[in-house]
């Protein structure tokens, strides 16, 4: 029984349409702008709702044709009572970020030229999506997990290199100590041998001198 006098199939279709719009609705901001050297960071703000997924990517235009020192620094953060940094990268030519907005507030994306060449004006391509499709979230979370694992592996690699360098240093010091001990032992052995030789020589000379003296005195 339809208590509201509505067509059941039509109501179900409207419900699915609304759910689909809620799941797949998102906004995209794409732009290209100039970033001159020597000026303060260029920032963009976006009001983002709570529990919205945010994905962005940026790159210097024709970065593959530019020298590697043509770089920028990028920061994504909030400036409220409890500021938080969601993404920070420096001295790069391209990058991307993704995070979940857990509060509804203004989010800032700031770009700074780090080329250190006053004659250069960089062109930046920037795209940011908010309220990303639910179907994209799994890929984003996987990518974020991969980034975390990559950072952990990098930390482990640096730790292993540090341990290897420390072990190499200790091995080198141990080799030096062994060489020093061998030289010291060799010198001590040589000194003992020379001391015994001089002692026996002096003793022999003293005996020869005494025998000669006693014979002259006709005591023996």
UniProtKB/TrEMBL annotation:
PROSITE patterns to which the protein is assigned, alphabetical: GOLD
Classification via Pfam families: EMP24_GP25L
InterPro entries linked to this entry: Emp24-like, GOLD_dom
Places the protein is found: Membrane
Topological relation to the membrane, as annotated: Single-pass type I membrane protein
Origin superkingdom: Eukaryota
Transmembrane region(s): 188-208
Listed GO CC annotations: membrane
Keywords, alphabetical: Membrane, Signal, Transmembrane, Transmembrane helix
GOLD domain residues: 41-130
Similarity comment: Belongs to the EMP24/GP25L family.
Protein name, UniProt field: GOLD domain-containing protein
Source organism of the structure: Vicia faba
Source taxonomy: Eukaryota, Viridiplantae, Streptophyta, Embryophyta, Tracheophyta
């Amino acid at each position: 029984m339809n208590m509201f006098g509505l067509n059941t199939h039509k109501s179900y279709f409207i419900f699915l349409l609304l759910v689909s719009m809620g799941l797949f609705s998102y906004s995209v901001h794409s732009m290209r702008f100039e970033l001159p050297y020597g000026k303060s960071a260029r920032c963009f703000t976006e009001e983002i709702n709570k529990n919205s997924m945010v994905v962005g990517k940026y790159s210097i235009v024709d970065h593959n044709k530019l020298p590697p020192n043509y770089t920028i620094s990028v920061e994504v953060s909030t400036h409220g009572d409890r500021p938080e940094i969601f993404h920070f990268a420096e001295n790069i030519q391209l990058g991307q970020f993704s995070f979940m907005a857990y509060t509804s507030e203004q989010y800032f994306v700031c770009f700074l030229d780090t080329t250190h060449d006053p004659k250069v004006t960089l062109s930046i391509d920037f795209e940011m999506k908010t309220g990303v499709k639910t179907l994209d979230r799994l890929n984003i979370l996987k990518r974020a997990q991969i980034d975390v694992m990559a950072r952990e592996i990098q930390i482990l690699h640096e730790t292993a290199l540090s341990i290897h360098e420390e072990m190499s240093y200790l091995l080198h010091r141990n080799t030096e100590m062994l060489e020093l001990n061998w030289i010291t032992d060799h010198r001590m052995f040589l000194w003992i041998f020379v001391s015994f030789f001089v002692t026996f020589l002096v003793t022999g000379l003293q005996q020869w001198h005494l025998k000669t003296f006693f014979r002259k005195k006709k005591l023996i």
